Each structure stands twice: as C-alpha cells, then as structure tokens.
Amino acid sequence: MRYVPIKYVSEGMILAKTLYGANGEVLLTKEMPILLSYVKILSKLGFCGLYINDEFSEDITVNEIISVELKMKTIKSINNLMQPNIRKKEIQSSLKIIEKLMGNIVDEISCNEDIMINMIDLKVSSEYTFYHSVNVCVLSIVLGAALKLKKSDLYLLGTSALLHDMGKIYTPKEILDKPEKLTYEEFEIIKQHSENGYRYVKENLDINNKVYMGIYQHHERYDGTGYPLNIKGEEISLFGRIIAIADVYDAFVSDRPYRKGVLPSEAIEYIMAFCGTMFDQRLVKTFFTKVAPYPVGTCVYLSNDLIGIVVKNYSSYCLRPSVKIIQIGNKLLSPYLINLKESNYNVTIVGMGDALLYQ
Ligand SMILES: [Fe+2]
To answer: What's the rounded Cα separation, in Å, for the pair 13 and 49?
Structure first.
C-alpha cells in the first residue's frame, strides 16, 4: 500500500485501510473502490490523505503500532471521559476502562523491540483532542520503551500522556477551535489547562504522583520558557519532558483550525531546531530513532530525479530508507529497489508526499 495526499486521490483507487470516524465508527472499509463523492466528504472531515493499494505498492506493508481495534476503543473512552457533563460515577468507570486499555497498549508496544512510528496517522480533524491524546500516549510509550523504562513505568507514562489534555474540558470550545490567532487573554485561558487537568486527575484517579506531574508539566520547556511553573532542565519530571516532545510532534503533523499539518520530516526538523533549548536533547535524539521522517508507503523524490515509495526504515539510519523506484520525472520505470542505507552513491531525499506516481 502507499499513502496518497487527499488532493491526488482519484476515482477508482482502492482503499488499503479501513477509515474510522470520530467515535470509532467505520466510514469506509478497506478494498473499496473510492468514488469522487467520498473524496469530497473525507476532505471536509479533515483527512489529509489515504492509504491505497495499487500495482506499484501491493508488496508494501504499513504496520500499525497498536491494533486499530485497541486504538478506537481508547479514542472512545477518552471521548467519553472528556464530555463536559459527565457524572462522577461515569468518570470513575471510564478511568477504570482506560487503566485496562493502557495495560493492553503497553503490552502491544513493548512486545516489539524494533518498533518505529512508520505511518501517517489518518484522523478526522473535528475530534482532534481524542485522536491527539491517543497518539501522544503511543508516542510517549514508544519513547519511554526506547529509553528502557520499566514496564510498570511505561504504564504510568501512557496513562499520564493519554490524560495530558484533560484540563481542556474547562476551556471554552470557541477558544480551542478558534481559527485566528489567540488574544493574550485567550492564551492565558488555554494555559490553565495543564493545572486544571492535574487537579482533575488527582481528584478522580488514585495513582502514582509521576502521572499527575506529567499532566501538570507537559507545557514546561527545558530552557524554562514554558508554563505554568517556568521550571527548567531536570526540575521538569521525566514524564513532563517526554510528553512535551510527543505532544508537539503530533500537533505539528495534524491539521488544526489555524494551520495545516506538516509532513513528519518537517515536524522532526522543527523539534531538532529546538533540541537542547525547548526540548531535552537526550530525549529528542532517542525519539528520532523511533519516528520515521519518511514513513513506509510515502512517496519520496531523490536528488537524481528518481521518484519512489519508501519500503523500509532503519532506526539508526532514519534518513536513509529502502525505496522502491517507480518513476523518473514523468516517465514510469520498471520498479527496482535501492537501499539508501547501503548504497555508496551520492543520492539524497529532497522532498516527499506530493508526487503523482503516474498521470
Ligand atoms: Fe496541552
């Protein structure tokens, strides 16, 4: 399968992954041929692209980090928990479900030592907070596992990351979804969510203090420029520093009301640029051995005009994947594989994402 940006999805393409809506409901099932009318609706819902299967990509597999079923169950539970009128009893039962799901998420991630974030997340932008919470949870656990945290700590880290934006239940929706730049006063209101979330979770969930601290400190910055406490360096808890990186990464690759999402390679460059200032250098370096700048199934342009699809990534050489070459300029070629990790010749990846593989 391969990833096609939504503007290049055309009628008759075959969907390679089932698409889900905000509450985990199935929108389109895999193997369906896509109609033009679907593309318009999906685009309105905020899907930036789709995975399709075609003759060029049928041998390429894109693996999920956690099973789709588990991901959708978790999105549903965080959605339930973040309803504004939720009753005390329902809060407790939702948190119980989340505790159980977290055990499954940690099990699925930690049973695979070689795990990498190697796909573009498909999500509806209207329900950003729920998808984002689950993505931040998965990214944080992957980073925690790469840092060799104990399984019991991965479980706490995942819980903290999943609940990191809980405090947004107190933030007015019109501020959260505002497409224009926030005023000073509005930003001050947004900033209250980390402390509100910390208080809310502490009140409703009896769990290790590390979980509360991750929520409280996920907007602190390593150089002291964050909020609410303006603390810096290792005064910020490890969970706070990990969740900060996962949070910013997922926010960057997602469409938001005020800007379009960027490609994984660009989000990585942004975080790299603030490595050692806003973000803990050691954690950033480890994170980027686990997040592929050019995920499997994405189209890449090479410096010698060749165009291909990423087939495999290597965690120690994340800028040098294996690529299935399909095309040069507008001319189709007989496909062949090159492994940038092993090839000695002077070829680099110069762009990704937008090529029409054939016209
Ligand atoms: Fe936040």
So the answer is: 12
pTM of the shown model: 0.91
106-141, pLDDT tens digit by residue?
999 987 777 888 888 777 766 778 889 999 999 999
Q: What is the pLDDT of residue 161?
A: 97
Left if phi > 0, otherwise alpha if psi is -120 to 50, otherwise beta: which for 336?
beta
Say if residues 332 and 303 touch (Cβ distance below 8 Å).
no
Residue 61 CA to ligand 1 center (angstroms) comes to 33
The whole-angstrom separation of Cα 118 and Cα 292 is 5
How far does the centroid of ligand 1 lie from the alpha carbon of residue 89, in Å? 25
168 CA → ligand 1 middle, Å: 8
CA distance 327 to 146: 36
Integer Rg of the chain from CA: 21
Query: What six digits make up the tokens of 136?
Result: 């931040």
Q: How many angstroms separate the alpha carbon of residue 64 from the centre of ligand 1? A: 25
CA of 292 to the centre of ligand 1 (A): 24
Cα 238 off chain centre by: 20
Neighbours of 343 (CB within 10 A): 12
